Amino acid sequence: MAFAAVAAGIGAVGSIAGGISGANSSKRAGKNARKQAKIAAAAALAESQKAQALNTQYYDQNRIDQARINEENKAYMAPYRQAGLAGQNQLLTLMGLQGGNTGAADYGRYAKDFQMSDYQADPGYAFRLQQGIDAMNKSAAARGGLMSGSAIKGGIKFGQDMGSEEYGNAYARYQQNRANQLNALGLFATAGMNAAQNTSATNALYGGQMGDASRGYANTQNEISMGGQARASGYLTGGQQAQAAGNMGAQNSMNQGFSNAGSSLQNALLMNRLFPKDSGSGGYGNLFGGGGGYGGGVTLAPGMPSGLNPQFKSGY
Fold first, then answer.
1. CA separation, residue 270 to residues 5, 205, 300 (Å)
2. Residues 84-110 pLDDT 10s
3. Which residues, 6+ apart, have CB-to-CB distance to 196 below 8 Å?
4. Which of 92, 146, 169, 251 is least enclosed by beta carbons within 10 angstroms?
């Protein structure tokens, strides 16, 4: 029985020591888990910031590229716009309208009806008139400067026919020339208007694309930030839970150690009651104290029977 008693005492001490050791291990594990969680959370936030920086880089480059393309498109349209403005200004000048060059010689040229001055300025009229005069002069010279009656009648008829026929021809040429000039200038003005509209559409497209890009950039930045924060929060929460679990495990380990130690002491006390010995010859009576038992420590309380417990006497 002496060996069992000693083993019970050693077991109690070992249980307490094991509980303390287990508690320390649990606490260390919890602290280490939380430390690693903080490191992981910091890494998640750092990765999020790197992703945001890269997204910003892409966005800035896209803005530069889109701005360059927009400027190139406007540069392509610029000559047509300028030609259109020139054509429009000349139209306004010829028609004598506001915005035209009032100091130009042809200002308002086509704003009035066909006049005698226009007829007389017609190249066909001047050519045929000169040809008729030359023919009459040659005829007169052949007669020594004298004109016959028939020649005079022929000259009068020539003038009448020329006035009738050539006026119509001059008027037609005037109208044709007027239409040619105005139509050509109108084509320039139309091309300029189309170029202006295309430039406006290009600017609108650029604005819309940049607006979409800006909104996409903001959304992506927010998603990256929220994702990084969520991961970091998850790591930190996990670390806190791991540390709490470590603390709980430490407490449980301590409790279990003391519980086991208490059980060992109770078993020793029980043996002491079952098999008491008054002498120091090897009994349990003074196992935890006193002079004659094993070890030393606890003395039985006064009044407790020194012999075998009465309820067990019948068996001995």
1. 10, 95, 11
2. 999 999 999 999 989 889 999 889 888
3. 77, 81, 84
4. 146
Instruction: Supply the mean pLDDT for the chain.
Output: 74
Name residue 70's amino acid. N
According to the 3-state scheme, what is the secondary structure of the chain? CHHHHHHHHHHHHHHHHHHHHHHHHHHHHHHHHHHHHHHHHHHHHHHHHHHHHHHHHHHHHHHHHHHHHHHHHHHHHHHHHHHHHHHHHHHHHHCCCCCCCCCCCCCCHHHCCCCHHHHHCCHHHHHHHHHHHHHHHHHHHHCCCCCCHHHHHHHHHHHHHHHHHHHHHHHHHHHHHHHHHHHHHHHHHHHHHHHHHHHHHHHHHHHHHHHHHHHHHHHHHHHHHHHHHHHHHHHHHHHHHHHHHHHHHHHHHHHHHHHHHHHHHHHHHHHHHHCCCCCCCCCCCCCECCCCCCCECCCCCCCCCCCCCHHHHCCC
Q: Does residue 7 carry a pLDDT above 70?
A: no
Distance CA 289, CA 300 (A): 9
Q: Where are the domains of the chain?
A: 1-274, 278-316
pLDDT of residue 281: 44
Q: Is the pLDDT of residue 298 over 60?
A: no
Reference 222, options 210, 232, 230; nearest CA is: 230
What 218-227 contacts at long range (C-beta under 8 Å, 24+ apart), as own/partner pairs, is: 220/55, 221/52, 221/55, 221/56, 224/48, 224/51, 224/52, 224/55, 225/48, 225/52, 227/48
Report pLDDT digits (tens) over 134-178.
Answer: 666 665 555 555 555 555 556 555 555 666 677 778 888 888 888
Phi/psi for 288 (5° steps) reads -110, 15
Residue with the larger pLDDT of the pair 260 and 10: 260
